[in-house]
Specification:
Chain lengths: ~450, ~280, ~325
């Protein structure tokens, strides 16, 4: 009865043979896609000579996608309704989903040459992947001819939307890394809360003192992705080298020091280990919310509102520690608006992005849901009516924008695999399977293997 | 007297242990039910408590409102359309194919059977991109066709399931029917099909639930939110990077289990009633 | 097969006594190839395969020989992906080990559990529908976020399990935080969702004609004898089905570790398909992911083939 095995194998072989001659499938695929593309332009009633002057008269349908939660969907739709009211010839077809699966869907759409006209992109390796395959429209002509008005937006923010010198996304708003702390908890313990000019030594000291005073954790465990990248920037290095082909630092001692610091705090019970962190079920379940620690360096500025809400006690914000924290800190675009290369209505899509970026009413509806607005005029116009927590976030982001350096955008497409390797290393060291020295060495080895692929 | 006492005692033991087992099995679900009445920010703070201190029914109305004016009413309607049609398609076609595989001798049967088994061994995540490209050629994007039509060509899991049940039916039955003038087709419709009703009902329950729960395919193939099914809508409450309306999410998740429970409760009877007919064959 | 054998033998003896023409006739209808009829019945499957499933499957095989990065061009790189799997990727081995442990423990335990519960439920008369429904319920919460949260709640450091242990004076443990135990919490979850196998067993049990039992109790057979002589043999086709399908599903499981542990701690719950998924959609290496998937297909195919091969010895069909 080897028959079954044999049969299985023969079927696989047949498929294999079919696959080897399958090189042409791909061409067929792209040929077919072209056809689909024409079809979709018919459906949307687009003109063949594209946008331009006569765009005002004819009906144009734009497809727009984003991810988010209930409130963002509601608010974004309100904004779209406002835009459609002001521009009766535009109809915006929305394709919103949750975050789960958003990028899987986008990958499939890219393969089918069916990307939406306007899409919400994620900063970092995601937007870099799509840009590197030439799937996103260069937006700089629209900025130059004033279709998208970016006057007054600081260069560090605009540059964050560039990949390899091409502007492929307009930030929807900005966020920054933040050290959040529970001021009441520090007061109760009689310990001075951190300030913007704190150093790494201050950080360790504060955490230890609080732990000794109260027996609770002095700080939340730092997860290495964002934190080590910041640590490197603060010391004057970067995680990746300029062309994204290797690590941006040569001395493994940097990672050894970073790992040793965290490991020391865990061993002394000042910080929880991964066994505790792994059980956190969501932002609303964070240790700082539950009052188990007063200090948490792992959040982004847009999350502070939710933290404070859940904690029910004021959460204050300072920049991350380090003598050169103005070099380490950066403003990150919370998300980017991009236009698909396959879009038939790039100009109209650009006009909508302009509307979203420059209209005060838009932000009156959506607040800082997609980060702090990038236009100074918009921020000023909103300032008088901000809630206390939004005011805190605005002030913080303002402070960071004056005390920071541009974000690194040179993430190679394999960046997330490198970050995963870093997390793995961090876990192994924190669980005591590796010494910091071994960890640093292992990470370099893995990272170089991944980047060489 | 003794045996009767013993029987009663056995019954009690039986039920007590079943109830205990059920309770353990259901604990997590009861926790979710409880959480659906908690305030969103309190879901985790209060996690150790099964039921909330104050009952908060607004999660249900908040959740039902849905997204951007599209309520869960629409999502339920869409789900029912997809689920009903594709379940009918899956069961009918799978039963036919299963009969072909189980009872008829034909050339290369084993080959086709192996092909069928192999199609179950690749994860959807791997074939979804070429499949998207293909359905895109067909012009099926943003329609229900990619979700419904494939089920009309048989679902391997159900084909194999029904096959196994057909193969427990003695062939003497077929032969007797043939002598009575039945042919291959009428043997299926008159003899086999009625006897595998329990298997078909089992398959229907699975099909209903799988289609109900399917997330990735609707996500890929549907674009307009007013065509989304419930499974997709449930994932739209959460954003790992920002605020999640946990309360509403739990409320809608709990609610979404109800139809499956009801369908299950109704259909499982047909599995049981299958005995009366299959009792014939002994 | 106990009771059945004499019956079948009787039948065969009768056959021998039948006039030759009639016997020939029976043989003809029973054994002859009916190609047209056969292909007619399975035609939906063939059409569906050729039209809808073949292209994506073959294409994914082609991709496994390329460096396809999810959105760009795919360049043929021969066997490099497969070579990388076996020579330079430590995670591949880790994921394989985890998956074998998970499927190896989870599949038999789930099947045994499902069969035992099905047997118990088969005896219950009162409120049987309710029990069935409630015990099936865990299977329908599937991969929802709710399950992830509940599981962390259950096995967390301050979770329900530890509370129970503590109240009994037993030591507590960080179940999800310890790399040695985390995978077992996922195995427990796999067993917990035994409902679908149970349902199939139930349908199989219901399909066994009551008359067999009646006849055997007249003969004075014990319950245990009945189980081994009637129930188990007649259930084997269904057991085969569950075994094959659970093996396939066990190897291909990934949602639990995706939503509950994200593969951690220290990759101790990195199920193979989760690793594949990461390569495809997080590391943008769809070519490599396709190679991983095809290697897994090979493993599952071998296991399935072995099960089918052995089934000739232990599965009892009524149709030959």
């Amino acid at each position: 009865m080897k028959k079954y095995l044999l049969l299985m194998l023969s079927v696989i072989t047949i498929l294999l043979i079919a696959a080897c001659s399958g090189g042409s499938d791909e061409e067929e695929a792209s040929g077919g896609n072209g056809g689909e593309n024409e079809q979709s332009s018919e459906e949307t009633g687009g003109s063949d000579d594209g946008g331009g002057d006569d765009a005002d008269q004819e009906q144009i349908t734009l497809r727009m996608s984003w991810w988010g939660s209930q409130s963002r969907h509601d608010m974004t739709n309100e904004i779209i309704a406002l835009y459609e009211e002001q521009n009766p010839h535009i109809k915006i077809q929305t394709e919103f989903t949750g975050f789960d699966g958003y990028f899987e869907k986008m990958a499939a759409q890219a393969a089918g040459n069916n990307l939406p006209d306007i899409m919400q992109q994620n900063f970092g390796e995601y937007v870099n992947l799509y840009a590197s395959q030439d799937l996103l429209t260069d937006l700089s002509p629209f900025v130059e001819d004033g279709t998208i008005d970016l006057d007054g937006v600081s260069d560090t923010i605009v540059d964050a939307g560039k990949v390899g010198g091409t502007l492929v996304g307009i930030p929807t708003g900005t966020n920054a890394l933040v050290a959040t702390y529970d001021s009441a908890a520090f007061e109760d313990a009689g310990i001075d809360a951190p300030t913007h000019d704190w150093t790494w030594e201050d950080y360790e000291r504060i955490a230890r003192e609080y732990h000794e005073e109260t027996g609770k954790y002095g700080a939340r465990l730092n997860e290495p992705g964002n934190m080590f990248e910041y640590y490197l920037r603060e010391k004057g290095y970067a995680l990746f080298n300029e062309d994204g082909t290797g690590l941006g630092y040569d001395d493994d001692q940097l990672l050894v020091d970073y790992l040793s610091m965290t490991k020391g705090l865990i061993d002394d019970g000042v910080m929880p280990g991964y066994d505790v962190i792994q059980l956190i079920k969501g932002l609303e379940d964070e240790l700082i919310v539950r009052g188990e620690t007063p200090l948490d360096l792992t959040n982004w500025s847009n999350q502070v509102g939710a933290l404070e809400n859940a904690a029910g006690t004021p959460i204050e914000m300072v920049v991350l520690p380090g003598e050169n924290n103005d070099r380490g800190m950066f403003l990150k675009p919370s998300m980017l608006w991009s236009i698909g290369k396959n879009s038939e209505h790039k100009e109209e899509a650009a006009k909508f992005i302009n509307f979203f970026t420059n209209t005060v009413e838009v932000f009156e509806i959506i607040g800082s849901d997609r980060g702090v607005p990038i236009k100074p005029e918009v921020r000023e116009a909103l300032e008088p009516n901000l809630s206390d927590i939004d005011q805190k976030v605005y002030d913080y982001v303002n402070y960071v924008s004056e005390n920071s350096s541009p974000a690194d955008t040179n993430f190679p497409p394999s960046a997330s695999e490198v970050f995963k390797a870093l997390e793995d290393t961090d876990e192994l060291v924190m669980y005591g399977e590796l010494t910091p020295e071994e960890g640093a060495e292992q990470f370099r080895m893995n990272a170089e293997r991944i980047l060489a692929k | 007297m003794i045996t009767r006492k013993k029987r009663v005692r056995n019954k009690v033991i039986q039920h007590v242990s079943l109830i205990a087992l059920t309770a353990v099995m259901l604990y997590p679900l009861i926790w979710m039910l409880g959480s659906s009445f908690k305030e969103s920010s309190q879901v985790f703070v209060d996690a150790h408590r099964i039921f909330p201190e104050t009952w908060n029914f607004s999660n249900y109305s908040d959740g039902w409102k849905g997204f951007a004016g599209i309520t869960f009413g629409t999502f339920y309607k869409n789900t029912f359309i997809i689920v009903t049609i594709s379940t009918i398609g899956a069961i009918l076609s799978s039963a036919l194919i299963a009969y072909g595989f189980a009872r008829i001798k034909f050339r290369f049967k084993k080959f086709w059977f192996v092909v069928m088994m192999l199609t179950m061994m690749l994860p959807f995540e791997i074939i979804m991109i070429p499949q998207y490209v293909m359905f895109n050629w067909f012009g099926w994007i943003d329609t229900y066709l990619p979700l419904i039509l494939p089920t009309f060509f048989g679902v391997p899991f159900f084909i194999f399931l029904i096959m196994q049940f057909i193969r427990t039916i003695p062939t003497e039955l077929d032969q007797a029917a043939r002598i009575d003038g039945c042919n291959t087709i009428t043997i299926f419709t008159r003899i086999i099909a009625p006897l595998v009703v329990p298997a078909m009902m089992t398959a229907a329950i699975f099909s209903f639930y799988w289609r109900w729960d399917d997330f990735m395919a609707p996500l890929l193939y549907l674009q307009s939110p007013d065509k989304y099914p419930v499974s997709l809508a449930l994932k739209m409450f959460s954003d790992p990077e920002a605020v999640t309306n946990w309360g509403a999410m739990f409320a809608m998740t709990t609610l979404s289990l109800l139809p499956i429970m009801i369908i299950f409760f109704i259909f499982q009877r047909y599995i049981v009633e299958g005995i009366s007919t299959s009792g014939l064959k002994g | 097969m106990g009771l059945r054998e004499p019956e079948v033998q009787n039948q065969m003896q009768k056959n021998k006594n039948l006039p030759p023409t009639k016997k020939f006739n029976r043989k003809r209808v029973g054994r002859e190839f009916e190609n047209g009829m056969g292909y007619m019945f399975i035609s939906p499957f063939i059409i569906g395969t050729v039209m809808l499933t073949l292209f994506p499957i073959v294409y994914s095989l082609y991709l496994s020989f390329t460096n396809f990065n999810l959105v760009g061009e795919a360049d043929w790189i021969g066997l490099s992906n497969y070579q990388e799997m076996f020579t330079s990727d430590p995670m591949f081995k880790q994921a394989l080990e985890v998956t074998f442990l998970y499927a190896g423990a989870g599949v038999p335990l789930r099947l045994v559990f499902a069969l035992l519960i099905a047997l118990a439920l088969n005896k219950v008369v009162e409120a049987a529908g309710l029990y069935r429904t409630f015990l099936y319920l865990p299977s329908i919460v599937g991969g929802s976020v709710g399950v992830a949260i509940m599981w962390r709640q259950l096995f967390g450091n301050d979770g329900a399990l530890n509370s129970v242990l503590a109240s009994m004076g037993l030591p507590t443990h960080s179940w999800l935080g310890d790399p040695d135990t985390a995978i077992w919490t996922l195995v427990v979850l796999y067993i917990w969702q035994f409902g679908s196998s149970m349902l199939i067993f139930l349908a199989g049990l219901r399909n066994i004609p009551k008359t067999y039992y009646e006849a055997s109790s007249v003969d004075g057979a014990h319950k245990i004898q009945q189980f081994f002589k009637i129930t188990l043999p007649l259930l084997t086709p269904v057991i085969l089905f569950n075994l094959v399908m659970q093996t396939i599903q066990g190897f291909m499981a990934f949602t639990p570790s995706f939503i509950i542990t994200a593969g951690g701690p220290m990759n101790s719950t990195l199920l193979y398909i989760l690793y594949m998924y990461r390569n495809a959609f997080q590391f943008f290496d769809m070519g490599y992911a396709s190679a991983l998937a095809w290697f897994m297909l090979l493993i599952i195919a071998v296991f399935t083939a072995l099960i089918f091969k052995s089934s000739d010895r232990w599965v009892h069909y009524d149709d030959n």
